[in-house]
Amino acid sequence: RKEVEQDPGPFNVPEGATVAFNCTYSNSASQSFFWYRQDCRKEPKLLMSVYSSGNEDGRFTAQLNRASQYISLLIRDSKLSDSATYLCVVSGKDTGRRALTFGSGTRLQVQP
Amino acid sequence: DAGVIQSPRHEVTEMGQEVTLRCKPISGHDYLFWYRQTMMRGLELLIYFNNNVPIDDSGMPEDRFSAKMPNASFSTLKIQPSEPRDSAVYFCASRTDSPNRYNEQFFGPGTRLTVL
Which of A50, A66, A77, B25 could anchor a disulfide with A33, C-beta 3.0 to 4.6 Å? Predict the structure, then answer.
């Protein structure tokens, strides 16, 4: 079983739609959670960190459920420029590990 | 700041040849990471350094892969001999250990390696 699991998609949605991505992680010791965005043939870039209480950044809302080991990302009012792959990412401090563990990504295509 | 710099951006080589990938992290960052991305396996950590010291190399596939960080501003990932299954995009990333930052890693543009 992969440490971080995501639905690969693709999610094809019209402009203006609301879309939600989910992710589960297997390591209960994970302490930090993120969503990264990766455009085609580009490097991953941090979209937002995910806090225990949930957090919002403009049209983006992230939620964390530690009991279920589940992370979500909600995108409201989708724009064409939101088309990308969204990577669910976790990291832990056990044994001092500072590296990130990436999900395989969920591809979003926003259509006009 | 120029961000994380990687070279070359593209590399095409033949099986059996030695390949060296280079990375310059963001100045002042304490951690440097090497990742590999393929369609089949996604983005995987190969090795990371803290203050130029290798901390976790459990992701290095086999002895053909080696990484060094001789100083705070330079790291190499070497594959010798290369094989077609090594074809992938190799990313270098760096981050600071400042308590005010929430573990954000900054990625370089990647090196696209093709082994024929």
Answer: A50
